[in-house]
Amino acid sequence: MRSLPRAIAWRLLPLLQCFVDFFLPHTMTEPPQNTSTPSGKFIPLYQAKSKVYPRSIDGVFNRWRWVMVWITQLVFYGLPWLQWGERQMVLFDLEARRFYLFGLVLYPQDFIYLTGLLIISALSLFLFTAVAGRLWCGFTCPQTVYTEIFMWLENRIEGERSTRMRLDKAPWTSWEKIWRKSAKQLAWVAVALWTGFTFVGFFVPIRALGSEILALQGSWQIFWMLFYAFATYGFAGHMREQVCKYMCPYARFQSAMFDKDTLIVTYDSARGEPRGARSKKVDAKAAGLGDCIDCSLCVQVCPTGIDIRNGLQYECIGCGLCVDACNTVMDKVGYPRGLIRFATQSGMRQRWTNHQMLRRVFRPRVLGYGAVLLTLAVAMMVSLVTRTPLKVDVVRDRTAIARIVPGGKLENVYQLQIMNATETPQHYRISAQGLEGLTLAPDSTVQVPATGARWVSVQLQIPYGSAAPGSHPIHFTVQALEHPAQVQEKATFLVPR
After folding, report:
1. Among 36, 294, 325, 459, whose CB has the most other CB atoms within 10 angstroms?
2. Within-domain flag for 52
3. Does 275 map to a domain?
4. E-strand spans in 372-408?
5. φ and ψ at 104, to 5 degrees?
6. Is 323 part of a structural domain of the chain?
7. Phi/psi at 282 (5° precision)
8. How far apart are CA 150 and CA 153, in angstroms?
9. What is the CATH number of the domain that holds 460?
């Protein structure tokens, strides 16, 4: 047991070191002699942050990445500004405990739908990972999306890869370095602040949020806007691949979700090796060379800075940029495409065609994930469509459990919370069943405002002696008069001895 805290500490060491490197960058010192491998090469447990300079590349996968950037950000930045009648289309009003989603009004009692959404998201992740690896990481993960946006700003302001490297090596006495670095930071801060503002706009009406923040009103709104902006700025602007390597848990357990028929970014070593530079006039086969010309372009475009030719690594996010880079080089030298491509381990080992590999992708595991996912999605949609826009909670009045009232009747008192999940005022009729002679007092009709809730005191009475002593099950029925909504809730009627 004494070794457990020590083991936990060693697991947390890389994460803690990552934060140290972010705020206090330093260079690696020479390793001690006793930590070297037999070959003499030192392999550190954690490598201090070494800045990655990704190179821009055009290709099919890069275009798909930008398509997903546009789709996700149009939804994120645009959705809070859309109106649904007199209110915001999507609004999670935590203060009022109302959640508006298009035409739906949800209460905290509808937490089951959030649970269903999380289960569907998890199954979708399992399905996509089983089919084609880390598609989520490479194309739609917020860390990937905002890193891509921040890198685009960096590229526009500071220049391409080689220019950025020269700029970083230049002294701070250079005016060009000062203004370019300052402009980049200002652009990053602007994007981060707008992102934080939009995030808070999902929980506070965004059209009123701007004036409140400018007037320095709403301390928690300002706090969360700055917090989300700081996280976006730090993760997407500075930490980048460090988040994927050391902070994201998915990178660590992805290997458990892969199998030999999962499409992953793969280097065809049988075709590419031995690698080496050559001119176009050289016959590679005659020279004993593979198709890889060792240009390292696949490494230069990688956002995490790995060499895919060394095999699949946990740092690989499956973005496919190395595929675009390699295909570009193959086109220039006149070699067939596909030296680096999405392929399966079984397909590479047995030299299958793309059609054969795609056929094996739809295996029982994938079909099972798909069937369960489709069933849950349909069930959740049906539940939302057929959902009753009325919630009722029954609470017994503890101050008057049972009492005898004038007229020789036995009375139980209850508190009913009626919640109107529509956006129009509603009238509801309350009734009760379950015992002979059961009556309700006073007036059984109540009015509840739009998207509001009301507590109603209800007295149930029975003739004294008409029921045996003990607890008797009864039912409250609340029926809307202007809407076909009806809810029945269980309760108990107590008859004292």
Report:
1. 325
2. no
3. no
4. 390-396, 403-405
5. -95, 145
6. no
7. -80, 135
8. 5
9. 2.60.40.10
CA distance 398 to 412: 10
Please give the model's pTM, rounded to 2 decimal places: 0.79
Helix ranges (H only) for 201-267 are 206-214, 219-232, 241-242, 250-253
Number of domains within the chain = 2
Provide DSSP, 165-191: HHHHHS-TT-HHHHHHHHHHHHHHHHH
User: Would you call 46 exposed, middle or buried from its count of C-beta atoms within 10 A (0-12, 13-18, 19+)?
Assistant: middle
Q: Is 419 exposed, middle or buried (0-12, 13-18, 19+ CB in 10 A)?
A: buried
DSSP β-bridge partners for residue 462: 410
Tokens of 414: 């209850």
Please state, rounded to an integer, the average pLDDT across all residues of the chain.
84
Cα end-to-end span (Å), the chain: 58
- What is the domain range of residue 443? 390-495
> Under a CB-based contact definition with an 8 Å cutoff, are residues 167 and 349 in contact?
no
Interval 325-348: pLDDT, tens: 999 999 998 899 999 999 988 888
Q: Which two tokens stand for residue 222?
A: 């300002």
Residue 254 is assigned to a structural domain of this protein: no
Q: Peptide bond before 336: cis, by omega within 30 degrees of 0?
A: no
Q: What type of residue sits at position 298?
A: C
Q: Which domain-ending residue is among 191, 219, 239?
A: 239
Q: Which of 215, 239, 263 is the last residue of a domain?
A: 239
Q: pLDDT tens digits, residue range 47-91?
A: 566 788 899 999 999 999 999 999 999 999 999 999 887 889 999
